Amino acid sequence: MAASLNQGNGDLAEVHEINVTPFIDVILVLLIIFMVAAPLATVDIAVDLPASNAQPQPRPDKPVYLTVKPDLSLSVGNETVGRGALPGALDASTSGQKDTRIFLRADKLVPYGEVMQVMNLLRAAGYLKVALVGMEQASSP
Fold it and tell me: Residue 1 and residue 13: Cα distance in Å, rounded?
């Protein structure tokens, strides 16, 4: 739009329209920045995860341990149980309280898929609070 600058009294007329062009320029620059930064946020690199050195949490009075042995047999506490009898053994150990945390231990030689199958058995039995147990690593100074 054109404005007449020569009105005789020396005042310029106010323009009541918003100039959108700088706003669009800023938005386009931000869009380019996000388009460049978004692929950098995804990770497709295989890594060896380190052992945890987090502070150990206090244990409950009577923890329920579910152990996956190297021969893929299961035991609740010190009793060896079959996979079909697992829900009944857990109900007996927890007095039927499904919100009890189950501490899952597995030998290093047990494949990850087997651990996931045991976790699926726990979920099917109604036990959703599962804690994975590992060796505590001493923190280095």
Answer: 12
